[in-house]
Amino acid sequence: MARDAVDLILEQWAEARPDLDASPMGVIGRLSRASRTADVELQRVFSEFGLQRGEFDIMATLRRAGPPSGMTAGALARSAMVTSGAITNRIDRLIAKDYVTRDVDPANRRTVLIALTPAGRTLIDKAVAVHVDNEHRILAGLSGRQQKELATLLRALIVSLDDAPPLAEPGDTAG
């Protein structure tokens, strides 16, 4: 099996501190490195469409939800697992780009709905197709079976950590 930089780190810890079981460093270190590499590759595609990751997430969530009603900012925040302040900043940026609207719900005037504009829908339909192709490329080093196994293991880890609060993205102001 091929070795990576984390193997050297683990060997060094085994030599420096043989009393420690540093094996979690292998898992966390590789998760971190894979996440950073994937983030760079994902952002490359988002940038092709003039979007930041959080903006893409909002538009994709609205697209999955389907027309015509839209979603509340609170529902978008829950879906994206970020703070309300982070969602507000993302929505404001997307409104400025004319990709989403913020309108009062005609059925309940106390509710504000966020919805894709026609330009936003066209853009996200193009962007998500390129995004999915990019994700296939990123994961091409793993067989379909390995991808399913990894997804299962990561799901179990995430479920075990699910008490974590939503995170703000760099550049977003929590509110």
UniProtKB/TrEMBL annotation:
It comes from the Bacteria. Residues 24-159 form the HTH marR-type domain. One of its GO terms (biological process) is response to stress. One of its GO terms (molecular function) is DNA-binding transcription factor activity. InterPro entries: HTH_MarR-typ, MarR/SlyA-like, Tscrpt_reg_MarR-type_CS, WH-like_DNA-bd_sf, WH_DNA-bd_sf. The keyword Transcription applies. Keywords: DNA-binding, Transcription, Transcription regulation. This is MarR family transcriptional regulator. It comes from Luteipulveratus mongoliensis.
